[in-house]
Predict the 3D structure of the following.
Amino acid sequence: MRKFKVKKMFLLALVLAAFVAGCVREQAPSPAFPTVVATLPVNGATSVLLNTTVSATFSSVMAPATIITTTFTLTGPGGIAITGIVSYSGTIAVFTPAVSLAAFSLYVATITTGAKIQAATRWPPILYGATTGVWTSR
């Protein structure tokens, strides 16, 4: 009779341990690098307004001092750099070109490895592009 009780107790403890282990809340691992979760215009967009701004929304708060014109760039036809101003607030970086963009042209925004999260982690560069249309909203 004692063997039976020990087996029952052991089996009960084993089932209870398995149940408790299965109820532990799993947490998704945090990414090693921040990601860009949204862009405006969206990657591959066409008929983009010629006087548009370009923005990127990050998955993490970035170090504002690292989101500047050398780390967030815009290039146009022939790989020519577009001059402009970069601003950053919350998790959104915005590149405002100094001039209107050329019609029917591909532009590529780049966020370089110089952009860092608050913990000073560097990350792989991100590229995305869009093509302009012919009208402006002005």
